[in-house]
Specification:
Layout lengths: L1 H4 L1 H11 L1 H12 L7 E5 L7 H4 L5 E6 L2 H10 L6 E5 L12 E6 L9 H11 E13 L4 H13 L9 H10 L5 E6 L4 E7 L7
Parallel strand pairs: 1-2, 1-4, 2-3, 4-5
Antiparallel strand pairs: 5-7, 6-7
Length: 203
């Protein structure tokens, strides 16, 4: 599997090249979570955001489709006793409805062929009054952003969509979401988050 094979490269990319964005994004996401929350994280990758969430919540189930990613995330978060890891498809998690206070989906929406299907599943498992937190890469206009995207494509990354801040907002608006808060974490690749306040609702 492609994501298993590049998990070591992802870890290097997170820590060396794009560390500012990953650290800042994790901190920003953690700010929306408190110690009473049961949290689901989908597409956790190598655990860059997981590591920031774990100290702030009651329980965390971190999932990914790639076992190689999960292995690295579990190693990174071994010191936390409130985190479990499992292989899960984001479009069909298998969890009961209304199981989680917060659902985090980091940096994967732009890779999904049917992101609206995944969002419906995430709506299903979040509790009434809960929150979806969806950090997503957005590109600025600088050459560095285009160069990074090209590098990832050469590795085999299949981008289904690319966002700047305006198109990122349009994406959710076109799907009928409201009560959204957008923040930007600056770095070599900028990161924008969608947070559905008081459970996301479609118009």
């Amino acid at each position: 599997m492609f994501w298993n094979s590049i998990s070591p490269v992802c870890a290097l990319f997170e820590n060396v090249y794009n560390g500012k964005v990953y650290t800042g994004t994790g901190q920003r996401v953690a700010g929306f979570i408190d110690r009473r929350d049961d949290v689901l994280e989908c597409a956790c990758g190598t655990g860059a955001i997981t590591e920031s969430i774990a100290p702030t919540c009651k329980s965390l189930i971190a999932t990914d489709f790639a076992e190689g990613m999960l292995k690295r995330a579990a190693e990174k978060c071994a010191r936390f006793d409130n985190v479990t890891f499992q292989t899960t498809d984001i479009a069909g998690t298998g969890f009961d409805g209304a199981s989680f206070d917060k659902v985090v989906v980091g940096n994967v929406i732009h890779l999904l062929p049917e992101p609206d299907r995944a969002l419906l599943e995430l709506e299903r498992v979040v509790r009434p009054g809960g929150m979806l937190i969806i950090p997503t890469y957005i590109s600025a206009t600088g050459k560095a952003d285009r160069g990074v995207a090209r590098f990832l494509e050469l590795l085999g990354t299949d981008f289904k969509g690319r966002f700047d801040l305006a198109s990122h907002k349009r994406f959710f608006d076109d799907l009928g979401y409201r009560d959204a808060l957008y923040t930007v974490v600056d770095g070599i690749l900028r990161d924008s988050g969608y947070q559905g306040v008081n459970r996301p609702r479609r118009r």
